Batch of 4 targets.
Target 1
Amino acid sequence: MPSSSSHSRSTQGLSGTQLRAGALKFPAVLMQGITHIAPAVGLALSIQFVTSNAGVTAPLAYAIAVLIMLTLGVSLSQLARHIPSAGGYYTYIARTVHPRAGLLTAWLYLLYDPAATAINVAFMGFFFERTMQSEYGLWCPWWLFFIISTAILTFFVYRGIAFSSQVMVVLGAAEILIVVALSAFGLIHPGPGGVNVNSYLPSQAPGVGGLALGVIFSIFSVNGFDAVIPLAEESENPRRTQPRAIMAAILCTGAFYLFCSWAVIIGWGTHDINGFSHSIENPCFVLARKYWGKGWILIFIAVLNSIFAVSIASTNAATRVLFAMGRSGVLPHTFGRVHKRYLTPANAIWLQTMLTLAVGLGLGFWLGPDQEFFFMGVVMTLGLVLIYGISNFGVYHFFRNEIRTEFRIWPHVICPLFSTAALLAVGVASVNPLPPVPLRYAPFVVLVWLVAGVFFVWFMSRTGRESWLSNAALTSEESEASAKIQLAVSEDTYTTSDELESRPHRTAQ
C-alpha cells in the first residue's frame, strides 16, 4: 500500500520524475508562458514596424495574429493533456510521429530556446549600453552587462524552479503594469484624432496586402506560449494545468496587445500615423517622455524586465529539454541528472550557460548585439515553422490512430491545418524578398542546420546508436512504470533460476 507522502506526490505532480514534482501551481506556469511571449518588449519593438505595414489598423493585425495563435494553442493543448513531459516537442513528436522525427525536432529546437536566452541578454546589453550613454553619459559595454546578467540568470535557474518562477512572476507583473499604465495615459490624453475605434475597422487598412504583412509580423510577437510544456514534470496536476496555461497565456497576452497597441496609437494620434511609423525614437519612449517626463525611465525598466524575464523562461524551458534528452540517452546521461538539493537539472543548466555565452558573445562580436537579435529572430521564426508543422501533423496522427475515440475535426484537423498554413505564410514572408545582409543569410543557416540534423539522425540509425529510441517517447510516469516492469521481470527471473539451482540439491539429499 502506498504511503501518504507518495500519494500526495502523485496527485500534485507527475510520478517518476527526478525533478521537483508539483512545485509550480497554475499562476507560475501561466507566467512562464506570458513572460516567454515577452509582451512589453514585443510591443515596444514590433508596433512601429507593424504600423508601417498595417497603418492605423496595426491593432487589428495583432488581433488576427492572436486568433491564429489560438488555433495553434488548441492543437498543442491536446498533446499537453496526454503527454506531459519535460521533453516538450522532443517527446511530443517522438511519441506522435516517430522517435527519429522527435530527434530531428530536438535538433531544430536548439535554434529556438537554447539560443533565445543568448540573443535576448545580448540585446538587453546593447539596449542598456546605448540608453546609459545617451541619457546619462555613462559607459557600460554590452558584453560586460551580458556576462553579469548571464551569471545572475544561471544562479536564479540553478537555485530551483520555484525560486526562478517567483522572480519571473515579479518581473512579468511589473512589465505588464507599466505598459498598461502608459496605455491608459494614451486614452486619457489622446493625440490628434481623439479616441476612436478606427484601428479595428478593416476599411481603415492601407490595403489587404499591408494588413496581411502586419499580421505576418505580429505572429512572432505573440508567440512563445509553448514554453510551458517543458515544465510539465514540475507542474501541479500537469494534465490539467498545462492546457489551461497554454490557452490562458495566449488570451492574456492577446488582451494586452489588443488594448495596449490601440491605446498607444490613440495616444500618438490616429491622424498622425505616418509620424508614428517614421519616428526616429521609439514611439513608446516618446509617449513616456510626453506623459511622465523623467519618469519615462519606467518604460526602459519595463523593457529590461521583459527581456530578463523571457531569458529566465527560455532557460527554464531549454534546460528541461536538454535534461530529457540526457535522460533518454540522446545526450550523455550526465545531462539527465539533477541537483540533490535543488532538484534542478544542474548539468543541463551548465550546458545551457555555455551555449548562452558562446552564441551571445560569438554572434555579438561578429554581427553586433543588435543585429544578432534580428538575425537569430529570423532563424528562430523559420525553425519554429518547421517544429510547429511537424507537431501539428503529430496531433492529427496521434488522435486519428492512437486515441480514435477522442478524435474531433475541429481540434485535430482544422486547427492544425489552419495554423500550419498561417505559419508557412510567416516563413515565406520572412525570406521573400530576401532581407538585407546579414539577415539574408538566416534561411541558409536554417537549411544547413536542417540538413545536418537529417544527417545526424541517419548516422544514429546506421551505426546502431538508437538505444534511446525506446525511451524517447515516454513520459516520466511511463518511464517509472517501465522500470518497475523490468525490475519485476528481473526479480522473477532471478527467483526462477534460484529455484532451478536448488532442485538438484534437494534431489541429491
Target 2
Amino acid sequence: MSRLETWLILAAGLLALVVTPSTGGAREIGPEANLCAEINTLSPGEELVLAPGDYHGPCAIRRGGAPTAPIVVRGAESAHRPRIVYGGRDANVIEVRASHVIIRGLDFGPTQSEVDAVRVFGADGVTIENCHFTGIGAIAVVANHSNVHGLVVRNNVIRDSLTTAMYFGCHDGITCSVTGLLVEGNVIQGVTAPDPEIGYGIQVKLNSSAIIRSNVVLNTKGPGIMIYGSRAAATVSLVERNVTIGSRTSSGIVVGGGPAIVRNNIAMSNEQAGIALEDYKNRGLVRDVFVANNTVYKNRDGGIKVPETGISGVTIVNNAAGAVTGTNAYPPPQKGLRMAGNVDCTASGCFANPEKQDFSPNAGSRLKGAGIFLGNASMPREDFFGVRRGTPPTAGAIERPSGPLPLNLQP
C-alpha cells in the first residue's frame, strides 16, 4: 500500500468521525439572555438553541464537550439565523478555547477592522457550519495561534470580507499547525484587503494540512485557495472539486509546496494562472504534487504553471486548459515534471458553453477519452459532479455533459 493510499484511508476514517454525535438536552434562549454566560454553563452533550434576533458578543467559550458528546450552539431557525453582534475592537466575536464545540446556523458581522468572527485557540474537534459572515473586518474563521486538530469548517457563506476569509496554521510552520482540517462546501464571495495584505479566500500555512473540497471562491484579492505544503513527506493536503473565479492579483489555486493532490477543480478568469505551483520563499517544497483532471479557462497568465527549476515528483495529468492568447496552457518539459493526457483547448472548442460556466465536453470535444489512467490512489475515480470516470477518462474536471456549474450563490 502506497503512502498516499494509507493517508486517504486515514482521512476517510477522520471524516467518518466528523458527524454530529448524539446529544443530551437542549435549552432555548432569546436575545435578552446573556449569551456568553449561557454557553459556558453547557455540559457535554447539551445544546444551546438561539431564537431569532441579535445577541451580544464577544464571548470566549472555555467549557467544551467530549469526543462523542460535544456542546452545540445553534440557531433555532435556518431561515432566520440569530446574529451575534459586537461593535468593539478589544476582542473577537467568538473565541473557542475548549474542545468538542459545534457552532451552527448563526450570523456574524459586520465587525471592526482586526476583529475576527470565530477564532479557534488550541482546541480539538471544533465544527463551524451553516453560518453566514458578512462584512467581517478581519478573518471570518481562523486558527493560527496554537495547535488545532480535527477542525471542520463546512457549508458557510462569507460575503464582502475585508481581509483573508479563512486562515489556518502559523506562517512559520513552527509555532503551530492545524491537522485533520476539513474545509468543505463553503461559499466565499468577495475579499478585499488593504495593502500590503494579500486577501486570500482560503489559506493553509506551512506544516498544516487539509482536505479542501467543494468550495466556491469568487472575486478575491489574492489567491482563491493557497496551501503552503509540509516539510513532513507523509503530510498530504487534498484540494478537490473547488471553483475559483476572479482573483484580482493572483492565481485561482496556488500550491506553495507539497505533498499535495489537486484534482477535479475549475479555475477561470483569474489574474495570473488557473493553478500555480510556486517555490514559496525558496523553501524547496515543490515536490510530490499531483495535479489531475482540472479545468482551467481564460486565466490571464496561463493555465497551469510550475517553477522553471527545483521541482521533483510533480505530475500534471488529464487536465483541460483554455489559455488566453499569448500565454501557455501548460509548462514546458523539465526535470522532475511528468505530463500526460493533458489537452490544450486554447485554439479549439472543448467545452459546451464556457462563457456560461458549462465546462462539460461538447459533442465533438477532444477531451473525451483523452486521459490516461495511472494505477495509484491519487487518480480521481469520479469527476467534479461525482460521476464515475470512464476508461479511458475524459480530460478535465467534468466527465460527461452535466450543465453549468452549481455555484450555490445566495442573495
Target 3
Amino acid sequence: MPRSHHTATATATRRDEALSRRRRVLRRQRALAGAALGAAVAVIALLATDLISSTPPRRHGVQVQPARDDAHPAGGRTPRTPSAGTYGVGAITLHLVDRTRTITLPGGQVVPRPLRTVVFFPTVKTSRMSRASDITHRPPASGRFPLIVFGHGFDIMPGIYARLLRYWTSAGFVVACPIFPLENPRAPGGPNENDLPNQPADMRFVIASLLHLAAQPKGPLHGHINSGEVAVAGHSDGGDTALGLAYDPSLRDRDLQAAVILSGAEIPMLPAFKIAPGGPPLLATQGTADVVNLPSATATFFNPAPPPKFLLQLLGGSHIGPYTSDRRQLASVEQVTTAFLQYYLERDHAAMRHMLRAGNVTGVAHLRASS
C-alpha cells in the first residue's frame, strides 16, 4: 500500500479521534453551563424554538412571524457609541430556506436546507424594563443598525449564549442566530459534525436574507440594517464557521467588516483551509484552560492572520463558561467584543480605548493587540 495512503488514513483517524474527544468534553461542559444559566437561558431557548404559533406567510423562501410585520420604517441612523443597556431587546424568528442546497434526512429523503434564524434587534427602552435581559414586543428602534450573524457550537442551541447576545443587541446591533440544520441537538438523526464545512454557506445565505428583508418595504426589519456594517461571529464550531467565511479563499465573503471568533479553530474537515491575506479585522478569544478547542488551535489561525487583529486570553477559562456562565470572564467578553465591533463597524475611535481597558483585567483576561 502506498505510503501516502497510510499517511492520509492516519491523519483521518487522528482527526476522528480528536472530534470524538471534543464532543464528549463539550457535552459535559454544556451541561454544567446550562445548569448555571437557568431561567435566563430558558427565555431565549423558548424564543429560538417556539415563537411561531401559527403558519406565517412565505416571502422569497422566508417565513416570518406575523406579529412583527408591523415594524415601522426607520428614519435617521443609530447613535454612535451606544453602550450596553441603551436599547431594549426585541426578537423574531425567521424560517429561512436555502432552496439551492439540500440536506438528507435519516430515511434518505432530500429536502431544501432549512435555516431557522432567531433575530434580536434594538427597541426603544422603556422605564418598565428593569434589565437588559427583558424581551419586548415593541418594533425596532428608529435607525439603521450594524448586523452580526452569530454561529452556535456543535450540539448547542443559540439560547445558551443568551446574555452575550442580549448584550450586543442592547448596545445597538441586530444579531441574527441561525440554527444549523444538522449540528444542532434536535437535528434529524442527532447532531452530525460532518456538516460543518457546509455552514459558512449557511451564514452567507442568512446575511443575504437579512439584507434582503431589510430592503423590503413590508419586511419585518425594513430600513433597520446598515448593509455596509456586517460582521460574523461564532463560538466553537460556529467560530470555525465564521472563520471560514471571513478568511478562507474558497469560502470567503469579501463584504464582511469584522470577525469575532470565540474559542474557534480552522475547519478540520478542510485540509486545505488557510488564512488568506486581506481579510477583515479579527478578534479571537480563547480560554487558557480550554480542553475542547486548545489554545494552540486559536494560535494556528491567529498567527498568520493579517492585522489588525486582537487576541483576548481568558485566564483559566474553559470552552463554554466564558461565554455563558462565568460572570467575570463573560463581562470582559461582552465589553471587548462590543467595543471591537463598534470600532470596526461604526468607526467609533473611543471604543478602542474601552476595548483595551476591558480586555486587561488582573486574573481574568489579557488582551493582545497587533495592528
Target 4
Amino acid sequence: MVIDEIARWIAEGEQHYVCVTGVHGVMESQRDPDLLRIHNEAGLTVPDGMPMVWASHYAGAPHVKRVCGPDLMLEVLRRAEVEGWSSFFYGGKEGVPKLLCDRLRERFPALRVVGTYSPPFRALTSEEDEVVCRMISDARPDLVWVGLSTPKQEVWMAAHQHRISAHAVLGVGAAFDFHTGLTKRAPLWMQRSGLEWFYRLVTEPRRLWRRYLRNNPEFMARIVMNRPRLQAREGPR
C-alpha cells in the first residue's frame, strides 16, 4: 500500500517524492523528457483518474486502483494523526494553506502541522528559494504537501526533495482547494465512472479546456494504437 511505503520511508529515514499522475501528467511526460525522468525517479507514481486505471488493466495489471490526490491526502493524514507524523503545506493562493490546516484539524484534531507557505505565482528567485528551503527544513516535517499544478509541482518536488528536511513530499494538486471547500469535487458516481474530468471542465472551462482538448484524445489514440505494457522498475527500491 502507498501509506505503508510512506511509513517505511519515515521509519528508515529515507527521502522520496510522490507523483499523483493522471492523463495530463502522462501526456506532458511524453513531450518533455525531463518530466518523464522526474516521474520515473519518484519514490511512488500513482494513478490519478479512471483512464489511468483502465490503461493499467489493459496492460495486464488488474489489481491497480485509483489513487487520487484528495483521497490520498486524507488517508495519509489519518495515519499521520495516529503515528504523530508532522506536516508542512506548500502551495495554494494566499491564505489557502492556513485555511486548509483549519479544515483538516476539524477532521483530525491531533494532526501536527509545523508550517505553511503560499508561494507567489511567479518563479522564486534563488535567494527566496533558499529562504523557503531553510524554513521548511527548520520545521523538520515528516510530510510536505505540495499543492501546485502539473507539471510545476513535479518539477518542484524533484528539485527540492534533498534540499529540505522531509521524508515524503507529496504532490496533490487541487486537493488544497477541494479540502478547503473553495472548489467542489464531482459527485461520487462521476468519479467512479471516469467522468470527473468532464465535471472539472464544466466548472473550470477557461482554465482546463485546452488541457483536455489536447491530452485526452491523444491519450486514447495512443492506447488504442499501441497497447501499454508493464515494465520492471530499474534500480533499487
